[in-house]
């Protein structure tokens, strides 16, 4: 129910307050919170005080606010991301023991890649992915491999939403071509896209209903990809995770010829 002059509900305003925090802005004064959440300062003060009393937010000694431990506790009790992470972790640890760079698990969320877990080694190459962080779908090997194995209507809806995005967003036909290639290969390999010194490689994880529900990927030094060994290892791990999610072994591989274009 709307209960503010602007027409937004209390739940919507609380979500906007929580969403104002990210890896670049982990803490902030109330005035900044009000601006980032699009709220009047008085409303932000009131909501911040209420959420702090519930330990959803916490206030530092300088008066700045950040997300509270209570929010993490509640989110960690039960979620699809937690279930996915628990199934995937043993397989991710096996991959990480071999590649000794970055191994990551992700899902699609709001046309972006949301990273659920990441394992890294000391001395690993740069990696812009962060746990609970996001990257645009079209620049991430994980995002592209998931979209490559999405139903055609999902792909076309994505393209329609971004029809007017300016360059460097790729043209629709170029994305369709990339998706087709990724689907044929069964993996997405993106050298030097996010960082000129690194390559992202990802494979899809399939759910019981058919489409890819997640991606398993690695970030390695560009020029040292060793795809002949890395890709089969990722595919084997992804099939194991798919089976752990309840997908039958015959359904846990790439869907060739199922009517969706492929993508990187």
Descriptive overview:
Residues 70-247 form the IclR-ED domain. InterPro entries: FHA_dom, GAF-like_dom_sf, HTH_MetabolicPath_Reg, Tscrpt_reg_IclR_C, Tscrpt_reg_IclR_N, WH-like_DNA-bd_sf, WH_DNA-bd_sf. Residues 73-131 form the FHA domain. This protein has 264 residues and is α+β, with helices and mostly antiparallel strands. It has 2 domains: 10-74, Arc Repressor Mutant, subunit A; 78-251, GAF domain (Beta-Lactamase, 2-Layer Sandwich). The protein is 42% helix and 19% strand. The protein has a 6-stranded antiparallel sheet with strand order 6-5-4-9-8-7, sandwiched between helices. The N and C termini lie far apart (41 Å).
Please name the CATH topology of the largest domain.
Beta-Lactamase
Q: Helix/strand-derived class?
A: alpha+beta
Largest sheet descriptor: 6 strands, antiparallel
Please tell me the CATH architecture of the largest domain by its name.
2-Layer Sandwich
Order of helices and strands: HEHHEEHHEEEHHHEEEH
Low-confidence spans: pLDDT under 50, at least 5 residues? Answer: 255-264
The proportion of residues in beta strands is: 15-25%
Domain FHA: 73-131
Region (Disordered): 245-264
GO molecular function, one term: DNA-binding transcription factor activity
Protein name: IclR family transcriptional regulator
């Amino acid at each position: 129910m709307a209960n503010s002059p602007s027409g937004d509900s209390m739940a919507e305003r609380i979500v906007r307050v929580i969403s104002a925090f990210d890896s670049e802005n982990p803490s902030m004064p109330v005035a900044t919170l009000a601006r980032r959440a699009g709220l009047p300062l008085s409303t932000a003060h009131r909501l911040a005080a209420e959420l702090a009393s519930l330990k959803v937010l916490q206030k530092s000694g300088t008066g700045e606010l950040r997300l509270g431990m209570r929010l993490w506790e509640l989110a960690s009790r039960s979620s699809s991301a937690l279930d996915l992470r628990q199934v995937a972790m043993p397989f991710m640890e096996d991959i990480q023991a071999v590649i000794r760079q970055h191994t990551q698990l992700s899902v699609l969320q709001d046309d972006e890649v949301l990273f659920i877990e990441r394992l890294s080694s000391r001395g690993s190459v740069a990696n812009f992915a962060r746990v609970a962080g996001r990257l645009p779908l079209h620049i991430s090997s994980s995002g592209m491999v998931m979209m490559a194995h999405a139903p055609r209507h999902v792909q076309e809806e994505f393209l329609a939403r971004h029809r007017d995005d300016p360059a460097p967003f790729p043209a629709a036909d170029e994305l369709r071509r990339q998706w087709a290639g990724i689907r044929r290969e069964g993996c997405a390999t993106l050298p030097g896209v996010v960082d000129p010194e690194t390559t992202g490689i990802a494979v899809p994880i399939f759910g019981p209903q058919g489409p890819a529900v997640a991606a398993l990927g690695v970030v390695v030094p560009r020029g040292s990809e060793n795809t002949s060994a890395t890709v089969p290892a990722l595919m084997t791990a992804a099939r194991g995770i798919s089976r752990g999610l309840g997908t039958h072994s015959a359904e846990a591989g790439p869907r060739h010829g199922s009517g969706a274009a492929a993508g990187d």
